[in-house]
Amino acid sequence: MKREQHELKIRITQLSEGTHNYHFAVKASELELAENFQDLIEITAVLEKTHRQLYFKIQISAKAEFQCDRCADRFYFAIQAPFTVCYGYDESASGNSADDELRLIHPGTPYIDVTEDVRQVILLAIPLKLICNEECKGLCPHCGINLNRETCTCADEPADSRWDELRKLIEEKNN
User: Fold this and answer.
1) How far apart are alpha carbons 117 and 85 in whole angstroms?
2) Which H or E run contains 169?
3) What is the pLDDT of residues 102-111, one digit of tens each?
4) Based on the domain organization, do 50 and 106 belong to the same domain?
5) pLDDT tens profile 46-66
6) Which of 26, 91, 121, 140 could form a disulfide with 30 if both were Cys (CB 3.0 to 4.6 A apart)?
7) For 126-130, what is the mean pLDDT?
8) Which residues contact 130 (CB under 8 A, 6 or more apart)?
9) Structure pTM?
10) In a shared domain, residues 69 and 152
11) Residue 142 sits in which domain range?
């Protein structure tokens, strides 16, 4: 059975053993993410419940608009990020576990909140270097023209005389 949720909390009390499917559609602001995310962030969760543990398989789908680090054009980036998380029951669990692979929870825990997990997975799925496409030529370092759209007439050599000594060293090394 598929359940539509608005919060990223999954009630686990009185939940029967077996497979349970959930679907979330949340705004970026609900996850404390920047407003450059388009539409809603879609999250699908499959929960396998046994008498000893809860095993989540979660898939995140989102689209965000970024500025290219090479040419400064705006572009859309699709995020498809799967992850898993497992919770085990433990009478002495305090809610905090040092192990990210298995999180311990008290058997009386009423729900699991995956909000922070989803937020962190989305942030980790965004590349450090945001490039609109692999063939992006960037901006001319001299005149600033977007080389994807136009060809500039700037010289290949740096015009700044402060680079002359470095050029001489490179030429000596190559000869």
Assistant:
1) 9
2) helix 164-174
3) 889 888 889 9
4) yes
5) 999 998 899 999 999 999 999
6) 26
7) 94
8) 66, 67, 68, 69, 77
9) 0.76
10) no
11) 137-174
